[in-house]
Write a structure and sequence with these properties.
This protein has 122 residues and is mainly β. The chain is built from no helices and 11 strands. Bound molecules: zinc ion. Zinc ion binds next to loops.
Amino acid sequence: MHIRKDDIVEVITGDDSGTKKSPTTGRVLRVLPDEGKVVVEGINRVYKHLKPSRQNAQGGRLSKEMPVDVSNVLLYCATCRRGVRIGRRYAADGHKERYCKKCSNSLGKLSNARQRYATKRT
Ligand SMILES: [Zn+2]
């Protein structure tokens, strides 16, 4: 999975997808690797109508985000201000990171620095 919990992603398809000018973004609440899906805050929200019950005297609406396919989201790049395709690489100090394939800025560490992957050995 190229998306992790707490990532900011852009939703590119579905009812909640935005436009080029105003992309729809949200924070990843949960990753479901087995299903290849992610739950994104505020995206693909469904409402469940509840009748008044003993636990909930008022009844009403309960909203809940449903998982969306991970292929429908792209990691958001703050520099490009849109969802982008990402790559992985080893940085100079040997940590693995994700980067934006468009502007090549780092999009966060995936692992700690490891000597064997460092380009400049200390
Ligand atoms: Zn970028």
